[in-house]
Amino acid sequence: MSVPPRIDYDRVARHYDSHRGWEAEIPLRVLECASGRPVRGLTPAGPVLELGCGTGNMTRWLLESWPGPVVALDLSRGMLGRAREKLGDARLLRASVERLPFQSGQFEAALGAFFLHHVEAPARVRLFTELRRVLGASLLKRGRRKPKGVAFLTASHEQIRKSYMTRWFPTFAAVDCARFPDLDLLREELLAAGFSDAAHDEVSRPVPKGGAEMLEKVRARFVSSLELLPPGEFEAGVAQMERQLATDGHLGDVSWYATIVHARC
Ligand SMILES: C[S@@+](CC[C@H](N)C(=O)[O-])C[C@H]1O[C@@H](n2cnc3c(N)ncnc32)[C@H](O)[C@@H]1O
Hints:
This protein is α/β, with parallel strands linked by helices. It has one domain (about 10-165, about 180-205, about 255-265): Rossmann fold, CATH 3.40.50.150. The chain is built from 11 helices and 7 strands. The protein has helices spanning about 10-20, 25-35, 55-65, 75-85, 120-135, 135-140, 155-160, 170-180, 185-190, 210-220, 235-250; strands spanning about 50, 70-75, 90-95, 110-115, 150-155, 195-205, 255-265. A 7-stranded mixed sheet has the order 3-2-1-4-5-7-6. The longest helix has 16 residues, at about 235-250. The chain binds S-adenosylmethionine. The site of S-adenosylmethionine has 22 residues, from helix 3 and strand 4. The site of S-adenosylmethionine (SAM) has 22 residues, from helix 3 and strand 4.
């Protein structure tokens, strides 16, 4: 069983896209880690599955880059509604990652961004096992098909502890380390589910001097961690950011770091 979602994504959906999105580079890296090959110039491929697609910000790039069908699922009606507005008749599905409504061997790759922390450990291992099923891992073993895999964009505990957010929100790291599975655990779970070659790559987006835009993102609680801080901490942190911006003219380094965890069937 997953923890009942503490974040109401139907509500979050209303403002999610104002402050969250991906440039092409990150979704392409995730796609290449999942499929195990360069995507550009690829000849027609089988379907790819995106889990926890939210408002479809990554789905959009998958549709543009992947030379095959893209199926994306999410549990939140509100998030999917926004995705539908942007992506028209793309194959979007309302379902939980805990019950994958797909036939065995249907997909060539599976991936997702920033949703694994919403799934509790036992359910994650079941999900990974299910992913091997929908990727057709048992057929691969008999050498019938080409290699397939999974890739998930997440944050390591080291990255969380070094996040610029900790400068203004003292419990930020504790909140996120408690809900994000760390890399060793994900690796163990992927191997326990039968995947091989579990590995990870760090990705980043350097922003040496944050400004008013970052303050606006924080005010809009652009990451769900900001909804989970103890009473008063959010307001105190925002006030501190405002003072810093007024005094220094910038917020210092707000570079973004994340990790792609990937494995093969
Ligand atoms: C932080 S958002 C990330 C959305 C998108 N991947 C992105 O990067 O913009 C997390 C998403 O995971 C979805 N989610 C959480 N638990 C889920 C579950 N059990 N099954 C499917 N989706 C889930 C939420 O509805 C939400 O849209």
